[in-house]
Amino acid sequence: MKKLIFPLASLVFISLANIAQAESIPQTVEQQKQVAGFYQQNLGNVQITALLDGTNFMSPKLFKDIPQAKVTEILKKYHADQAKGIQTSVNAFLVNNGTNLTLVDSGTADCFGAHLGSVVKNLKASGYAPEQVNTILLTHLHPDHSCGISKNGVANFPNATVYVSEAEANYWLDPMQLKSIPKDKQANYAGTVEKIKTALEPYQAKKRFKTFKLGDKVNGFEVIQTAGHTPGHYSYKLKTADQDVVFIGDIVHSHTVQFDRPETAIDYDIDPKTAVQTRLKQFADYAKNGQLIAAPHLPFPGIGYIHSNGKDSYQWIPVHFKD
Ligand SMILES: [Zn+2]
């Protein structure tokens, strides 16, 4: 065996090179943009692509009828008590069943700022084109679910028909509704209506905006009445050759406080009491049935299961990342 003999000069060169390399690593580094925010999961004959719109931060004070000390305690347990607020994901879901390409909820486009609005970008990154989407199912019309269908008055999904429940459309689009809104909430309501109308306009112009009622089926999706958060809020259930999946919408906004204490409403709920009843009923059913769910405000990709801890307390079980 040959002995490896390095001349002294080359040793000096190697050690100097190592020092140079070490010095080129900056002491503080800015966090780069993460990889594209999409996550695909196949369920039998159906492919679901979770699309990240972005990450938001919400105030812990938005939780209702719960002592702030309890909120803080739960957030600490989950390491979720950040100075900026509670990190909250905005997700949408693309469903390919071989016949239809359906988008469930659509994110925010530019309704809330540049930290959100990435659904279209992430849809393209996942290998699809916006023109391929032929159906959009909105769980409700809040702008973080509906704004993403358009940008600057132009449809983001020019070949899609948009569906929402009749009750939801009436609540936001019937001009007579304003009178029934409490005075102190009218300005907020009117501002939200403007955003919704602007998003829907290009679809309505082409007669591509439709409503459904309880008992209807929309392109193979069963509709589940889950009112409370908004008056016409619906979830969507899809059967597949594997396990079924329910796109739950905003029956829950927090994988921490509202799983530990599901009786806790949030300020975004239009009818907090009914929203809580809906969550308690749906959580109990989904936990009992081991139901796979997809949620717009649970940590990306927002796909997983609800586990019952007993005594009306639950735990979020996210899917395991699989490449
Ligand atoms: Zn909402």
Automatic annotation (TrEMBL):
Task: Report which superkingdom the organism of origin falls in.
Answer: Bacteria
The alphabetized UniProt keywords are: Hydrolase, Metal-binding, Signal, Zinc
**Any one GO MF annotation of this record:** metal ion binding
- A Pfam family (short name) is Lactamase_B
Protein's UniProt keywords contain Lipid metabolism: no
Record CDD domains: OPHC2-like_MBL-fold
The UniProt entry's sequence similarity note says:
Belongs to the metallo-beta-lactamase superfamily.
Name under which the protein is recorded = MBL fold metallo-hydrolase
Taxonomy, top ranks, is: Bacteria, Pseudomonadati, Pseudomonadota, Gammaproteobacteria, Moraxellales
